[in-house]
Amino acid sequence: MVTKGKKLYEGKAKILYETDNPDLLIQYFKDEATAFNAQKKGVIREKGVMNNTISTRLFGLLEEEGIKTHFVEKLGDREMLVKRLEIIPVEVVVRNMVAGSLARRLGLEEGRPLEEVVVEFYYKSDELGDPMINTYHIRAFGFAEDEEVESMVTSALRVNDILKKFLDERGILLVDFKLEYGRHHGEILLGDEITPDGCRLWDRETLERLDKDRFRRDLGKIEEAYEEVLRKVMN
Ligand code: TMP
Ligand code: ASP
User: What's the pTM value of the predicted model, to 2 decimals?
Assistant: First the structure.
């Protein structure tokens, strides 16, 4: 049992609270959603509850497969207990198919499968709108050590293999997703969340979007899409 302490940090979709154990934090999932660097704001009804459950299931799956994550346990509807991380300010994006900013940047149509998995890095900065960076920038600005980058990429590619298979068995295509990592007593752990907020998930048969693109692009039926992912992931 842990006791909830004071608010440590409030982000766009989550709040972190301290606990009586300095190594552990409580991660609270909000219903608020933002897109395009918070220029677009809204609420997705019960998103916090759904994302906490989806994240719990997927972190559990990854832990079973030997991936080191910050997840400890689900505490309630909207809260999970996690290990305290010193966040590395680099977002790791993994892509299996062309979509989103990759489609825009290279003038490609969304939905084309990639011959090889693509890994990209973005500098975590709201003010700058998360600009894309590469390993030279990570090294030059000291965001992470070379071995840490290697460990993040190895982990992210394994996460991709595990999630792709798990979701495929449930009729969902894992198009792309974003991961965040941090340090805990010198060890690199997967942090943040794994939810339709930070993944592109398409229905394998209809190619219907079952993720935050429904909110970003005003496609409607947002709650229904999250509910469908929840149902399939818990199956
Ligand atoms: P992108 O195509 O916009 O670069 O996004 C790639 C994937 O990363 C997509 O699944 C959404 C996710 N993502 C986030 O979760 N947060 C972000 O700030 C960005 C830019 C992308
Ligand atoms: N989550 C980011 C934002 O709030 C970007 C996105 O997911 O589109 O701006």
Answer: 0.97
- State the pLDDT confidence band at 89, using cuts at 50, 70 and 90: very high
Structural domain of 107: 86-220
Residue 110 CA to ligand 1 center (angstroms) comes to: 14
Domains of the chain: total: 2
Q: Which of 12, 32, 36 to mutate to test the pocket of ligand 2 (most atoms within 8 A of CB)?
A: 36
Cβ of 203: how many Cβ atoms within 10 Å? 16
Q: Of all atoms in ligand 1, which is nearest to the CA of residue 37?
A: 18
The tens digit of pLDDT for each residue in 147-197 reads 999 999 999 999 999 999 999 999 999 999 999 999 999 999 999 999 999
Rounded-to-integer distance, Cα 40 and Cα 216, Å: 8
Give the residue from 83, 113, 131 where a domain finishes. 83
Same domain, 46 and 129: no
Q: State whether 105 and 208 are in the same domain.
A: yes
Q: Looking at the structure, tell me whether residues 56 and 125 fall in a common domain.
A: no
Compute, in angstroms, the gap from residue 198 CA to the centroid of ligand 1.
Answer: 6
